[in-house]
Task: structure prediction
Amino acid sequence: MKIAVVHNINQSGVIYRFGILNKEMYFRNEIDSFIDTLQNNGHMVQEFDGDKFLFKNLESFLPVIRNGYTPEGLVFNLAYGIQGNSRYTHIPAMLELAGIPYTGSGPLTHSIALDKEMTKRILLQAGIPTPAFIVIQQDAKLDGLQLKGLKYPLIIKPKSEAGSFGISVVESENELIQNIASTLKEYNQDLVVEEYLDGRELNVGLLGNGNSVEAFKPVEIDFNETGDKFQSATGKKDGSYGHICPANIPENLTKKLQEIAKQTFLLLKCCDYARVDFRLDAEMNPYVLEINSMAAIHEKGSYFHGAKKAGFDYRGMINRMVEVAVIRYKKP
Result:
């Protein structure tokens, strides 16, 4: 099969710079390893930048896709987008317009998953636990800020960022106001402020589609005596945190995390793969922090740790992702 690997390492292929610039991308060595894996699985692989030239470049590489037939080529989407609030959606939307099959979730799912406020509102409506929160708009008056019953410590998050960018934990009103002001200035977007749960952090990877989606064993984040209260963008980049899989938790909690992860995956209409992040409270009750519809799938990430415990080596995991995407597009 011909597989076009689309990424966003080169971010120059736009007409204008406008809106929120993306900070997420795979590193060069991670993409090279990924391409080698696909080639070792017998695929013909070529990489492309996810930019304004993508249509023309893909048309010269991918075979004609015939409706009603098993795809003989597809895009493996590793592109987080270049800019904008809904940057995860850009490549999937372009591919749907062009009629090209691709791995991973569609524009609707990515749009919701990247928006922390919308994700939490949908989770709450479905009865899925998530920490209590408020939204701070860009033009909010910070004097006399109403917390609506939220209790310290609180965690501040840019509304449409991922990868732990811009996150901070505060213990007092002075800290809260200062950090809100600095984060609004740096990220130029609304913020989510939620109650910080001082418990263990875990995640569950998912692979597949529909009711047959497989939920991996929970992975616990080991902060390795860093003193960090949460995963920071710097800590992730530096590999400061460890991964424990399966997490040393009771079996009934394992099953509960897997069930909530599946429910979240289906609720947001995810496709092929994703990862749901959790935090436990003092009574070991799980709360969904977010769903990563573009979960990192390199060999050092949480997702692959869960996949290994499920019996996949890296080559097998990537091959399975291609398989479930092809099956999804195959017509009966």
About this structure: DSSP finds ten helices and 13 strands in the chain.
